[in-house]
């Protein structure tokens, strides 16, 4: 039986085409698409920059305007306690103490919010950083004055980074303070290590504390978000948001892993400056 090949059925010569004209049309179309994308990206960048400036201005005004009435509330409560404390009943004194304590807490929240806002406008002064020295220094400042419950710190490999030294020190301070707070017992060990993977350098701060429910880990780096009761672990819920903002300004990312009651690992990545220079 004779079969017919698809190749044999093909015409002996292809139809006439105009490759140069087709290439020209495709090139013009590609250039138009690229220009449209560039224009759209530029417009979005302007909008984002304007929104960021507006948010920073709002945060600054809010923190400034809230301080005055808050000081007034705290002052009135303190004056009432000092001038009329002897004539007040036990419940009245308890309420005044509660007002004073809440005013102080609100003051700390305002200060933390102001610090968070300043990060967005602070000028970066990048330099090559010895990350091991920086982590050790931040840790020593935190444990100074602690006695029996002072944790131990183990430093692994920590590649140098190219970033703003003061801001990266704040990253270590916040993450180490967080690790100390959630591991408040005698056998605490905190491990800080890092590794290079292509265009990124990733650093990890690990502890053997209470951990957190990983289902809600995405909330950790948001403003005023907490996964534990403030009565059990004090704090404003701003520390990890500050870390995220600093890392974001350096073009990196943050994330965390944990198993409840088995500790937690907090990661942040920064661009590998050696890869960029190369």
Give the topology, please.
Elements: H1 6-9, H2 19-84, H3 90-121, E1 126-129, H4 131-143, E2 152-155, E3 161-164, H5 165-181, E4 189-197, E5 200-207, H6 239-249, E6 253-258, E7 264-271, H7 273-277
Parallel strand pairs: 2-4
Antiparallel strand pairs: 1-3, 4-5, 5-7, 6-7
Helix pairs in contact: 2-3, 3-6, 4-5, 5-6
Helix content: 40-55%
Regarding quaternary structure, what we see is: single chain
Any low-confidence stretches, pLDDT <50, length ≥5? 1-14
**Intertermini distance:** 65 Å
Beta-strand proportion: 15-25%
Q: How many domains in all?
A: 2
**Average pLDDT across residues?**
77
Q: Can you list the strand order of the major beta sheet?
A: 2-4-5-7-6
From the 3D coordinates, which CATH architecture of the largest domain would you assign?
A: 2-Layer Sandwich
CATH topology of the largest domain: Heat Shock Protein 90
Can you count the helices?
A: 7
* Global shape: globular
Number of strands: 7
Features:
five-stranded mixed beta sheet; 278 residues; 7 helices; 2 domains; disordered N terminus; globular; Heat Shock Protein 90; alpha+beta; two-stranded antiparallel sheet; 15% strand
Short description:
With 278 residues, the chain is α+β, with helices and mostly antiparallel strands. The protein is 53% helix and 15% strand. The protein has two domains: 48-121; 127-277, Histidine kinase-like ATPase, C-terminal domain (Heat Shock Protein 90).
